[in-house]
UniProtKB/TrEMBL annotation:
CoA binds at residues 164, 218. It comes from the Eukaryota. It is an enzyme of class 2 (transferase). Belongs to the thiolase-like superfamily. HMG-CoA synthase family. This is Hydroxymethylglutaryl-CoA synthase. The active site is at 92 (proton donor/acceptor), 126 (acyl-thioester intermediate). It catalyses: acetoacetyl-CoA + acetyl-CoA + H2O = (3S)-3-hydroxy-3-methylglutaryl-CoA + CoA + H(+). Its EC number is 2.3.3.10. Keywords: Lipid biosynthesis, Lipid metabolism, Steroid biosynthesis, Steroid metabolism, Sterol biosynthesis, Sterol metabolism, Transferase. Pfam families: HMG_CoA_synt_C, HMG_CoA_synt_N.
Amino acid sequence: MSNQNGHHSWPEKVGIIDVEIYFPSYYVDQNELEIHDNVSKGKYTIGLGQSKMGFCSDREDINSLCLTVVEQLMQKRGLSYSQIGRLEVGTETIIDKSKSVKTVLMELFKESGNHDVEGVDSTNACYGGTAALFNSVAWVESSAWDGRYALVVAGDIAVYAEGNARPTGGAGAIAMLIGPNAPIVLERGLRSTYMEHVYDFYKPNLMSEYPTVDGKLSVQSYAKALDKCYDGFCRKAEKLHKTKGNNVYKITF
């Protein structure tokens, strides 16, 4: 954006303007799954805090989940697809090794005549959705921004082989509208990331949708990454705001 003097000005308060979620109508009652798996009562419902596990019938897939949630968000906001300049999807549910979910979602844009939409799919387990969000916020904050909104979609169909991980599966999608003057703002210049090469969760078998999971290592990796991100965030916050320590920011964690 440019002001009256022709000087560039950044869009302010960039973040999440609105959110829409969608879950399939089919689900497994976790109380019944406890009985089926012959485990102690409350292992899934109390121990894991689960009540229902959504799943897709043969009439739905990752494409339809994302199509539905985007259409719901656009209708709720009363927006035209011509108002969207970026669309990025975060998912690890792959039904085509080349064609992205984002390209399927472009069918929704066809009637508006808007084909000038940046973005593609981001894939890296659960982080794909986070990457899609960060990329879209960065686009709005960048010189490439043309004044339109960005759409971020995160969706997955999580299916596990029989065993301890199965009750943690599920299916669903979320769509986020990104732009300036948002009620949920991502603070500019203050972000911390920690990434490491670890085989805690991966899907090496392209013939199966089941992941290979090392549960203990996964929990350890998550806790380590959280600690490292917090430490990095505090260092950056101190440098950015020229404060001592991190007392102000401990409240938010």
